[in-house]
Amino acid sequence: MRADLTVVVPAYNEERRLGPTLDAIRAHLNANPGRWGRWELIVVDDGSTDGTADAVRAAAAREPRILLVEADERGNRGKGHALRRGVLASRGARVLVTDADLATPIEELDRLDKELSQDEEGLAAAIGSRAHPESSIDVHQRRVREWLGRLGNRLIRAVAVPGIRDTQCGFKLFDGAKARAAFADARLDGWGTDVEILQFFRRAGWQVAEVPVRWAHQAGSKVRPVDYFKVLGELARLKARRVRRVDLAVAALFLLASVLLYKGLWADLDSRYLADSGQDQNQWEWFFAVTADNVTHLRNPLFTAAQNHPDGVNLMANTVMLGLSVPLVPVTLAFGPTTTWALVLTCGLAATAVAWYWLLAKRLVVSRRAAATGAALCAFAPPMISHATAHPNFAVLFMIPVILDRALRLCGSAVPGAVPGPGDGKRVVRDGALLGLFATYQIFLGEEPLLLAAMGMLLFAGFYALAHREAARAAWRPLLKGLGVAAAVCVPLVAFPLYWQFFGPQSYHSVLHGDNAGNSPLAFLEFSGRALLGDEARADPLAMNRTEQNAFFGWPLAGLAFALALALWRRPLVRALTLTGLAAALLSLGPRFRVPYTEVILPGPWRALAHQPLFESVIESRVAMICAPVLGILVALGVDGVRTSPDRLARTLGLTAIGLALLPIVPTPMPVRERPEVPAFITEGTWRKYVAEGESVVPVPLPDAGNAEALHWQSATKPDFTVPGGYFNGPWGPDRIGIYGASPRHTSNLLRDIRYGAAIPAIGPEWRAQARADLAFWRAGVVVLAPQDNAGALRDAVSRLLGQPGERVGGAWVWDVGDAR
């Protein structure tokens, strides 16, 4: 038979207080039979080892509407399991779940019932809330326990059910049918079941109201403060179970693609080196190694003197990616910086693709296939692959889609074509705070990518406002408010690191990139050297180097983008995306550019930004990287649209055209080369006999942007010794202009020139005096010449400069110059 109300009480070892609890509930319901009608009270024994079941049977003998659901054979399973059994056994039009201790008195049912009955919007549940301003706490828990409970509840709300202030109060009244549907879907057995049920109601669009209640802490409560944090673990498992299989398959494919790209590197981490990375692999491995060394020795992670001795290096002013290099310190210490380097590149590319897939599937397209195609283009586009050979800060961009999603949340549903989330536009302060935290983390992953992303979002916002003014008017207030909150959160967190970057030791004001840093218009139509149909001979002349092939999308993809823009032009989203991509491409041409196949030089719009703060250090060709997500989104929209076409032939032709446009730019595996061995003089620690405290090891030639093997000496053996020179960004001259490497000195210039084939000049007293002065500045303890090209000429030059022949030690020529000062 149906009932009007079912009360469900989970019980575990509640023999002593269960009798009074059942009497109180029965008395309250019988006191007003006209209001509660036919009722039933279900007690679920959760594997008690005392007389709980006997107490229920005794009460049931006096009141047949009290029912016992006996423990199953597995014994105690947890509150969630007990509630699930009780609710699924219920027959009530409404279902109240309450704890056996009646910390919330049964009389508070009147409040919940009144809220559920009088609401005109069709509430599905009214839940007791101790956090409601009108609630009354008669007996508090101990202060520490209460504080931990509040912290745990805040964490639960942040990750699971934002907007509900108290998820764990054990007094909830549900619509019976909806409760049975929710508990039938539930999987958690522990305390996390409250959050799981509330999540189900939210996903179903069923309204939940928090109601103020009286509450009193009861001695002998089964809930411990640590249980709040166990709930987070249960929710993590729940989240994992709810991931679609297709999503897991897509993520696995992205990871497989990334592994295939770097298979040559992974094949032999000890001796393989990415051939196109120049000296950047040496630099990045050194970044990871020196960060691990700073962290383990509790030194300032923003500075080191291991390179550019004695002046040191401002690490915050370099691309150290503290957001990854610090968390991965255990990996670096256990397996070495080369493993960290390979792991960051491989997993970072895959994570970026997954993040774009998540954003596209959540916001822009229905088809998972469309989302995967667009995400693959966003993450594995030619400019991204170019940087993935040497610049993980420009390839590992998984936070950018997360930041974009949070910005869309602030806009609410004001972006037609983007699917709104349930909380969009409603929690501006919370979303703004999270945006600030996300931006903070991205700053510690890469500031220049964040600047470019901000440029792209600003361009899109401007063009979208022109394309859809009503949406812009609806979005600008919550967006600006959220951005203000984000700034209030982010600025204090990054204030000191940024102060150190721009005003600390070895800071600089801008970086010199030369006059050839813009894209050629032809670069957008050509294939990169690492694309499936790429040609190094055609691509190399159109870029600064292979790590800066920042366009190279190929003419088929350009043609496809043009066709998609025309076909979907009626949508404001597409118009804004198209104009954003065109503006970014134009800006990337630099302050001036040559019209292809002519001698005509035209000014570019970048000229207005070239000398502005922040922008003066940007390599302008990188602005074209904004085009990658623009094209990825357009392609995703195209695949999604073609997929829904009723004409089978049109679907086949459309998907074929998209596939043919993308095929030429599919990246090929990264080529590798053998890296030079580290001299035994370094690996065996023989250098320690020559270097006193405060002295440096001077490699020949000194490390610089063109030859940084000495950094590998440090990263392969831990940076226990210092070297002058190096490959980093640092100041030069009285204006502190940024350059790559240390400020040059006469001796370092001479050795570098000889290394690359210059003749040895006549070395007399002046050259020897200069060498002594430079060695004194570097605080040299030993000069080391490892096997390399032109090693004979270098050995001859150093011997003349120092007035001694040197000795062969540990596979290298060394000169003991500890007394040179």
From TrEMBL:
InterPro entries: DPG_synthase, Glyco_trans_2-like, Nucleotide-diphossugar_trans. It comes from Streptomyces albidochromogenes. Pathway: Protein modification; protein glycosylation. It is found in: Endoplasmic reticulum membrane. This is dolichyl-phosphate beta-glucosyltransferase. Its EC number is 2.4.1.117. Pfam families: Glycos_transf_2 (PF00535). Keywords: Endoplasmic reticulum, Glycosyltransferase, Membrane, Signal-anchor, Transferase, Transmembrane, Transmembrane helix. It catalyses: a di-trans,poly-cis-dolichyl phosphate + UDP-alpha-D-glucose = a di-trans,poly-cis-dolichyl beta-D-glucosyl phosphate + UDP. Belongs to the glycosyltransferase 2 family.
